[in-house]
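ok, trying the design again with the full structure, not the truncated one.
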């Protein structure tokens, strides 16, 4: 069967061109298997005999296949060029590939923009210019290529390391699963492939995108959304170039019924530095990527092994694990260990149902009793008739969600045990796993092939149980309807900004009032006569503030006086604040407001990031930076996101516990802030409402609010 026919069907053109070429030329081919060009030729000729492979090198070929001195010397059309040359020669080969009419090219070399050097930037610009002026699609650079398994089990391997043992047998019988893996890192992608192989899962296709100067991860996700042969899409991500396009692609894929499993690199500070050094991407938002991807309906893994387990569960159709576990053990001690481990993870070990107890009572030894854990002894576990019946009875128990078989160090009759559990699991609608320390590898393999996870150690079993409990695919975030309160507030903000005026505190507070907050009664004064009238109007105690839209931390500069209780204090504060304003070249307006002693002070607002707007909530006042009790959720924010903000912060938990009605009003206001952030997403301004006074009577009063323009660096780096 040819490669083209193996991928027959209504596939997106990009995938057909990239993964099903009829003729491949390898520029930089070598007889030396330690070189990239040597590995590519070896892999291609070994696994892809139905495709025409041409080794391109000025040196004579090794006699094992077709050879040409240059691309121009190849007779007939060339569909794909694999560019295995040094970085300085890449752009020249891309030009030659365009001239011969190649549809795709794969560039493996590194040393472009990710080096952050002048030479690297120059080479990047040259390559990008060459690619942008062509209809030829280019994968890479700085990638390991791609692999694809055909329906026959033959392998299309245009990758140079990590995905298969090149010293293995000539024929590799593989039954591919409907999985596509797309990775911005070739090494991490290959690691995930290795883990999947260990559980007898073969993705149909794996593509390493590298620096993405042309073909991008987002474009491939969108293509796989339209691919009828793919059910699960795995993604390893280190940076998002266009968050809106990626979110759209993920949404299209989810609506098409695809399950998406992601892993994010650069979540830690050190990890972020590593990403920047090897790919050139800014990876300072790994924790936000995780939250962002979850909002898009994906499952997010914490590491390559967890990602492999999630992909395996998705392709097997295994749902989220329930809490109630039945344990079948080869000994009492093994059952005890398994029960302790499971209860430590907050699983329940309930008593088995009466009907189940009656069935297993006739199958277990006289010394055993039908309980949970169920100690059946090693001899019964090896029994080819009783073990399948016991396992099946436990799996059918309506009070159990999952069954764990613990076989300890048993190796006598290992294959029979594996056969028994596998046979019982075939007809079961519930997940079953085996905990088998020191078990035989062939028995574990047999279980994995049958779709029964088998783990040799506690940590792997614990990870499977944990990710099985935590993860399930969700729908893409829904559009939110217009808010009758947030929309007028958005219009008011736009009027101020379009007029070219900085948003002064009194204006910001009026917008907060439109949004539904209370604000203190206040008067803007510019001289002593106005001050006297304001004091009479507002009444003591007072708060007095200098009006300076460009100043964020007014209190630190002496522009705030709190709890002013008499005329002399008011006069002194007025003169001091005006003096500071004059010294800084600012207007000398002073805002005189009623003082509200708070029971609690909280902060709310939003911050713009490269991934979108983030709703912010936490402990406010002067302690906001020292305590750091602040949480963030992406906008749009639904009720669940608002609840997470409250539960993740000390302030939120205290108010929820002590003032539940105030917490309900706070939820409403946070939803309105989120909607205002969404409606003004095109405006490069952060909103900082700090503090919001939560009074003893349960009122929410905005004491200060600031709309701050983003700096250019902030727009890029968040």
């Amino acid at each position: 069967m040819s490669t083209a026919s193996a991928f027959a069907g209504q596939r997106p053109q990009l995938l057909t061109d990239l993964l099903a070429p009829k003729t491949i030329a390898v520029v930089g081919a070598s007889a030396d298997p330690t070189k990239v060009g040597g590995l590519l030729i070896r892999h291609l000729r070994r696994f892809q005999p139905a495709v025409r492979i041409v080794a391109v090198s000025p040196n004579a070929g090794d006699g094992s296949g077709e050879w040409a001195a240059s691309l121009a010397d190849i007779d007939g059309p060339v569909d794909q060029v694999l560019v295995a040359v040094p970085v300085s020669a890449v752009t020249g080969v891309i030009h030659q590939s365009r001239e011969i009419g190649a549809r795709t090219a794969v560039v493996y070399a590194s040393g472009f923009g990710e080096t952050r050097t002048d030479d690297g930037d120059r080479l990047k610009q040259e390559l990008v210019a060459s690619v942008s002026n062509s209809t030829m699609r280019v994968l890479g650079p700085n990638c390991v290529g791609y692999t694809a398994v055909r329906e026959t089990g033959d392998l299309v391997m245009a990758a140079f390391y990590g995905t298969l043992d090149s010293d293995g047998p000539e024929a590799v019988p593989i039954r591919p699963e409907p999985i596509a893996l797309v990775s911005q890192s070739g090494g991490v992608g290959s690691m995930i492939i290795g883990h999947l192989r260990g559980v007898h899962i073969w993705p149909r296709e794996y593509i390493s995108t590298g620096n993405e100067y042309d073909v991008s991860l987002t474009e491939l996700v969108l293509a796989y959304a339209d691919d009828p042969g793919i059910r699960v899409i795995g993604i390893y991500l280190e940076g998002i170039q266009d968050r809106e396009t990626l979110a759209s692609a993920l949404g299209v894929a989810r609506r098409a019924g695809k399950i998406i499993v992601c892993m994010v690199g650069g979540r830690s500070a050190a990890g972020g530095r590593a990403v920047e050094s090897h790919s050139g991407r800014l990876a300072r938002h790994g924790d936000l990527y995780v939250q962002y991807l979850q909002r898009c309906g994906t499952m997010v893994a914490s590491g390559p092994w967890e990602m492999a387990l999630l992909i395996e569960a998705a392709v097997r159709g295994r749902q989220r694990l329930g809490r109630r576990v039945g344990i079948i053990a080869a000994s009492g001690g093994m059952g005890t260990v398994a029960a302790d481990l499971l209860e430590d993870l907050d699983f329940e070990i309930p008593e088995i149902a009466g009907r189940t107890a009656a069935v297993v009572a006739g199958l277990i030894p006289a010394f055993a009793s039908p309980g949970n854990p169920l100690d059946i002894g090693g001899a019964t576990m090896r029994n080819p008739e009783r073990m399948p019946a016991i396992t099946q009875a436990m799996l059918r128990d309506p009070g159990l969600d999952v069954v764990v078989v613990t076989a300890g160090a048993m190796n006598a009759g290992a294959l029979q045990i594996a056969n028994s559990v596998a046979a019982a699991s075939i007809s079961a609608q519930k997940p079953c796993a085996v905990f088998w320390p020191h078990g035989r590898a062939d028995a574990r393999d047999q279980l994995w092939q049958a779709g029964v996870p088998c783990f040799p150690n506690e940590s792997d079993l614990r990870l499977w149980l944990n990710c099985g409990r935590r993860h399930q695919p969700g729908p893409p975030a829904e559009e939110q309807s217009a808010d009758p309160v947030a929309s007028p507030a958005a219009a008011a903000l736009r009027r101020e900004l379009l007029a070219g005026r900085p948003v002064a505190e009194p204006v910001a507070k009026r917008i907060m009032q439109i949004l539904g907050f209370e604000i203190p009664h206040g008067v803007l004064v510019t001289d002593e006569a106005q001050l006297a009238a304001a004091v009479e109007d507002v009444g003591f105690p007072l708060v007095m503030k200098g009006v300076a839209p460009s100043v964020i931390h007014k209190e630190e500069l002496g522009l705030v006086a709190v709890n002013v209780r008499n005329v002399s204090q008011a006069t002194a504060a007025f003169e001091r604040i005006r003096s500071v304003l004059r010294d800084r070249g600012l207007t000398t307006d002073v805002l005189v407001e009623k003082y509200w002693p708070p029971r609690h002070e909280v902060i709310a607002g939003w911050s713009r990031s490269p991934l979108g707007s983030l709703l912010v909530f936490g402990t406010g006042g002067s302690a906001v930076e020292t305590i750091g009790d602040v949480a963030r959720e992406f906008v749009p924010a639904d009720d669940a996101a608002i609840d997470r903000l409250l539960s993740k912060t000390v302030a939120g938990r205290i108010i929820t516990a002590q003032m539940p009605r105030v917490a309900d009003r706070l939820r409403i206001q946070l939803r309105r802030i989120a909607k205002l952030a969404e409606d003004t997403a095109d405006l490069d301004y952060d909103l900082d409402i700090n503090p919001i006074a939560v009074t003893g009577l349960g009122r929410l009063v905005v004491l200060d609010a600031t709309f701050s323009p983003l700096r250019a660096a902030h727009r890029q780096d968040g």
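Keeping the full-length input from now on. DSSP finds 27 helices and 28 strands in the chain.
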